[in-house]
Design goal:
Shape: elongated
Helix content: 55-70%
Pfam families: Ank
Transmembrane segments: 128-146, 166-188
Keywords: ANK repeat, Membrane, Transmembrane, Transmembrane helix
InterPro entries: Ankyrin_rpt, Ankyrin_rpt-contain_sf
Mean pLDDT: 86
Strand content: under 5%
ANK repeats: 3-39
Radius of gyration: 25 Å
Number of helices: 9
Largest sheet: none
Number of domains: 2
């Protein structure tokens, strides 16, 4: 149409209908590359329209949910490119459909590829390092604080604090996690997916 939407966009936008899985199967059989075409208006993949429709389905609409699930399976079997738009569309799926998507071999392979890239791997290792550091220094600070309070009860003239050098890793860890969360918030907001945070 004039917005650059393909027939697959319309079929997945109506994924809850009984005929939709058959239509999606036919369209993907004719041209599997259509899964990667975005519309001109918002640069949405067909998967975005499936997510929009699926988010309106209630728990009681079992047949409609089954049709949407079949459409998702067919879409993912066509092996879409692992672009940022694709990953954002996956995140915008409702939980019941996202749970189905992440167990498919296509999404597993994409996530394995993305997570094994240098930056995400570094980020995971960095998180582990900071978590361990914070736990260790937290335990040390708590023990020192308890010891100092017990000493203060014995001798009220002594009032020492936990040394700042023991608190610095805790503050750095808190700042690191806060910055990371802010980056995630801004990233999701720029993609229009803030509600998934």
């Amino acid at each position: 149409d004039r917005n650059g939407r393909t027939p697959l966009h319309f079929a997945l936008g109506n994924a809850d209908r009984a005929a939709s899985p058959s239509v999606v199967k036919l369209l993907l059989h004719q041209n599997p590359d259509v899964v990667n075409i975005t519309d001109k208006d918002k640069a949405d993949l067909p998967l975005h329209l499936l997510a929009t429709r699926a988010n309106t389905l209630r728990d009681t609409q079992c047949a409609e949910r089954e049709n949407a699930t079949k459409c998702l399976d067919l879409y993912l079997d066509a092996k879409p490119y692992p672009t940022a738009a694709f990953l954002a569309a996956l995140q915008s799926l409702p939980e019941w459909l996202r749970d189905r998507a992440v167990v498919t071999s296509t999404v597993k392979n994409i996530l394995n590829e993305k997570l094994s890239e240098p930056f995400p791997a570094f980020r995971r290792l960095f998180d582990i390092y900071w978590h361990i550091t914070i736990i260790v220094f937290y335990v040390i600070c708590v023990q020192k604080s308890i010891d100092q309070r017990l000493e203060f009860e014995k001798d009220p003239t002594r009032s020492e604090r936990v040394p700042t050098k023991w608190l610095i890793p805790l503050y750095l860890g808190a700042i690191s996690f806060t910055v990371w969360e802010l980056v995630q918030i801004l990233s999701l907001k720029s993609l229009g997916l803030f509600n998934t945070w």
